[in-house]
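subagent[fold] <- orchestrator: predict structure for attached chain, return tokens only, no commentary.
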Amino acid sequence: MRVTRGIGLLLVVACVMAAGAVSTLADTGAARLPRGDWPTFDYNPQRTGAGPATTGISARNLASLSRITVRLPGTVDSSAVELAGVRVAGAVRDVAIVTTSYGRTLAIGLRSGRILWQFVPRSVRHLQGGPQITAAAPVLDPGRHYVYVASPDGFVHKLAVATGRPVWNTQVTSDPQREKLAGALNMADGELIVVTTCPW
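subagent[fold] -> orchestrator:
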């Protein structure tokens, strides 16, 4: 287990009861987030699903909204995280970061729909097309410089938001065929929380 810049890795192993393991975070204080950020599944560690009151969409600008279709190299079966006004691929942009079922993680420009970077874990080649997948949503570091993502080979990766380059990775389970990284990653009190689920 590695600890980097004060962020520890807390592994919560829960067979079938993944939701119960995360519910213990309900009493931690909510951090103040930059406007436009959505750092984790359901917005905050408490999973309230209640983000900023102002979304940027109003009756006045509704008619100016347009649909953007983005072709992705895989199926995204988890929630996106979002950052507003961060430096990615050499420019300040609003981005969404998603992970596909076989562990590819993509940063997508919200204005253009362009894929700005892609992280591909080594295991993708031999897992693609098989039953071993992940549905774990990424989680953003409170400092907005890193994103933590899961891959179906049992690893969690810390990636640089600006480039998608891996900073470190750590193996959460040595039996990823049975202990699936399926629950959304979470972060509270400086700890990264990873939940595994078992098939029985």
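orchestrator: received. Logging for downstream: The longest helix spans residues 18-22. The chain has one domain: 8-24+35-42+72-196.
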